Amino acid sequence: MNVTAVPDWLNKGDNAWQMVAATVVGMQSMPGLVILYGSIVKKKWAVNSAFMALYAFAAVLICWVTWAYKMSFGDQLLPFWGKAGPALGQKFLIQQAKVPETVHNYKNGNVETAALEPLFPMATLVFFQFVFAAITLILLAGSLLGRMNIKAWMAFVPLWLTFSYTVGAFSLWGGGFLFQWGVIDFSGGYVIHLSSGIAGFTAAYWVGPRSAKDRERFPPNNVLLMLAGAGLLWMGWSGFNGGGPYAANVVSSMAVLNTNICAATSLLVWTCLDVIFFKKPSVIGAVQGMITGLVCITPGAGVVQGWAAIAMGVLSGSIPWYTMMVLHKRSALLQKVDDTLAVFHTHAVAGLLGGALTGLFAEPTLCSLFLSVTNSKGAFYGSGMQFIKQIVGASFVIGWNIVVTTIIMLFIKIFIPLRMPDEEILIGDDAVHGEEAYALWADGEKFDSSWFSDNTQHPSEDAATGVTVHL
């Protein structure tokens, strides 16, 4: 076998862009969401929240290359699932990428569209798709912060990746039945955001709520760091949607521009609504509006026009705002389930909205540049069939995630309590990890009430030497 580091099929530009896109998407999680989660929660939960994201990123990678990649993008096992297998061998990883590997989209007895063969190796594709899988679990974690047993979370990550994420990915991207039917999910509005929002809400139901004190008051411990994490999330989305076409081409350029247009519009609309109804702009609200805009544009980023991106931004800044600020307070179910970071609203509602709007706004010429199913177009450019497909696709993702997430949680519950013990919930990071986010006493030692007894020197009385703590 004649092997070269630069085979004839390799396009260095496409390969470089795809690896850069994958890296910035990875940075959305590490350090983006690690920082955002560790900052947006109460101080006592900063370490635990950041660690849930950190653990998920590492665990997903090992599961992904061991069996989950091929379940998502390999040969068909079922119409909604691929055959498990490793993506670790040299022979597999250095060959030209091919997606989907399952090709059975027949029209009039012939394959309608051949599989896409990007001009880079399988190793690049495997890594790119890994960062998508990882961020899905990390987004899901946002619903569970502040009370889920960390050991239960450690078990949940590989199980949910295997039995839920791979199904959505194969069905919509890997050659499964929704892919063949022509449901549009440009870069993960359904596979990532709708699934994480629904699964997070379902998992939160089974874990139960935070302590009453935490639910009543849960201020961020560092708003500026939260904004730093949010900024990494926003800028990383250029790789998220810009990498969707698997090439540095005109579709990726459209996707990047539309992504930023929609995010900015949504943030401004959300902020304006906060000012109108609450008389002051909320920084956390602005971040929520940014996220809903990014999520909403994702299923249609490269197949809608710029004006449609603005329209989607207006709706993503207002409809999730309404469901979060108004409908949530009126719904007994939404009030009962403690979704810590409102992932249901920012990802499930916004993802469903984006998928539906893609069914309206998908422009035929842009669709022909990207989609494998011919004559795809939104309802504004022809029949309403695409809109129906989008709703059916969303219904499958919602139903699968409710059922499978429930089964996984009940299975884990047999062996590991889903919820932290009450004493850990009361104390937080120090009880769960033996670590705290900020050094607030002396040289960073944990607070000891004996420092303030009559016979003990106050730590501030000798700033030069500090306090010796006997462990």
Q: What do these coordinates show?
A:
- It is a single chain.
- The protein is mostly helical and about 475 residues long.
- Helices cover about 65% and strands about 0% of the residues.
- The protein is built from 18 helices and 4 strands.
- The chain has helices at about 10-40, 45-75, 90-95, 120-140, 150-170, 175-180, 190-205, 210-215, 225-240, 250-280, 285-295, 305-330, 330-335, 345-360, 365-370, 385-415, 420-425, 430-435, and strands spanning about 75-80, 80, 105, 110.
- A hairpin with a 2-residue loop joins strand 3 (about 105) and strand 4.
In a nutshell, what does this entry contain?
The chain is mostly helical and about 475 residues long.
Number of helices: 18
Assembly state here? single chain
Q: State the shape.
A: globular
Q: Structural class of the secondary elements? A: mainly alpha
Chain-averaged pLDDT: 91
Distance between the termini: 62 Å
Annotated CATH architecture: Orthogonal Bundle
Topology pattern, helix = H, strand = E: HHEEHEEHHHHHHHHHHHHHHH
- Taken as a percent bin, the fraction of beta residues is under 5%
CATH class: Mainly Alpha
Record the strand order, biggest sheet: 1-2
CATH-assigned fold name: Ammonium transporter fold
CATH homologous superfamily identity? Ammonium transporter AmtB like domains
What is the C-alpha radius of gyration, as a whole number of Å? 23 Å
Number of domains: 1
- The count of strands amounts to 4
The biggest beta sheet is recorded as: 2 strands, antiparallel
Poorly predicted parts: 456-471
Q: What percent of the residues sit in helical stretches (DSSP H or I)?
A: 55-70%
